[in-house]
Amino acid sequence: MKNVVILGSTGSIGVNAVKAVKNLGKGWRVLGLTVNSSLKALSLQIKAVKPAYVAVFDYAVWSEFRPSVPRGVKLLSPGVEGLVEMASLKEADIVLSAVTGAVGFSPLLAAIRASKHIALANKEPMVMAGELLMKEAQRWQAKIIPVDSEPSAIFQCLAGIKPGHYDAAVSRIFLTASGGPFYTVKGSLSKVTPAQALKHPRWTMGPKITVDSSTLMNKGLEAIEIKNFFSLPVSKIEVLIHPQSVVHSGVEFRDGSVLAQLSVPDMAVPIQHALTWPDRAPSLASRLDFFKLSRLDFARPDFRRFPCLELAFDAARRGGFCPAALNASNEVAVERFIAGKLRFTDIPAVVEKVLAACGRDPGSRLTLAGAVEADSWARQKAADAAEVITRRAKK
Questions:
Q1: Is 39 a member of any domain?
Q2: Is position 209 within any domain?
Q3: Using one digit for the tens of pLDDT, what is the confidence trace for 138-149?
Q4: Residue 294, C-beta contacts closer than 8 angstroms, at least 6 positions apart
Q5: 280 domain-assigned
Q6: Which of 91, 168, 195, 291 would you call most buried, defined as having the most Cβ atoms within 10 angstroms of its Cβ?
């Protein structure tokens, strides 16, 4: 029996992960579920898969849910503590982390130190301190398999290359991006509304990652994740705009060969691959029909129009605490944009101000604790920068 816990079970990745475990059938079980505050959705999932453990992140909602926890289900602690408990359960074989943002750092570290098979959709911890987390995974013999479609594609293309030998074998990484809803829009993007940014042309995702896709910050974060995951210099990572979202990414090797992973744009494929690796099983995704593909287009990204991408690559080149500061400031700016407190074009402005405050030299050697401290520092700096921008806009 493979026991799976799903952190963030009511988001788009979590919902599809529950479906994937059910699809795998006999020998697979959802052991635990965690949510932020979606009690109604959690209750439906409890009825459907009958987990042994659940956790609710929001303290007020946890208190509301506590008296009505179904018999046979253990409610873990609220907050990060509950996520850490769930990620390190002795009975859990696989931990799928689909929480959003830096909040996933501690549970990921807990799963690593519990030597789990980790299906990772939560890229932000890998941005903050991915190189150190990969070393921890090696130390504790934990396996981390990427869930996001592009890192998953690269992981699949590099099958057969021994970890530690990627840089010697790889010439370039082709990291594909749909371009989001605004790539072909002409004129200023300053009037873009949250409702417009939350309508992705290809994927159904959570609000934060959807906005990140519209600013292209998501590609920048993925570039840093890939750099850390595979120990590659960021100079080898090339972003390609690919609106059809059929080629999920590719790898060019030193001999000139290029391997790419193709499938329909359906998260069922990378989610199930991360769960079953190194094996494969039939998934719920429809099959790719090459005879219906009229064309596959690729274009270079516009770094000027989408400055978040350049900011991310700059943070990757600088290293140290800069990627953690980039991630934290972006989270703050996106949250305020969704709330209607910042303009779309203010998102990169906030991030740029925080990275400028980091200085050109990120300073002392990064540690796991230091990454968390940098996250906290950058959030305050970002909040301050956002307030200044908001006051100026009102004058």
A1: yes
A2: no
A3: 999 999 999 999
A4: none
A5: no
A6: 91
Tell me how far apart the alpha carbons of residues 220 and 334 are, in angstroms, rounded to a whole number: 15
Q: Give per-residue pLDDT as tens, 285-329.
A: 999 999 999 899 999 999 999 999 999 999 999 999 999 999 999
What residue type is assigned to position 193 of the chain? T
User: Model pTM greater than 0.90?
Assistant: yes
Please report the DSSP string for 2-64 in residue order.
Answer: EEEEEETTTSHHHHHHHHHHHHH-TTEEEEEEEESS-HHHHHHHHHHH--SEEEE-SHHHHHH
The vertex-226 CA angle with 222 and 232, nearest 5°, equals 140
What's the pLDDT tens digit per position in 92-117?
A: 999 999 999 999 999 999 999 999 99
Q: Hey, which residues does 337 pair with through a beta bridge?
A: none
**CATH at 132:** 3.40.50.720
Task: Report yes or no: 263 and 248 within 8 Å, Cβ to Cβ.
Answer: yes
3 state SS of 172: strand
Tokens 């934060």 found at: 208
d(C-alpha 276, C-alpha 147), whole Å: 12
- Domain-embedded: residue 112: yes
- Identify the domain containing residue 83 by its residue range: 2-146
Q: What is the pLDDT of residue 206?
A: 86
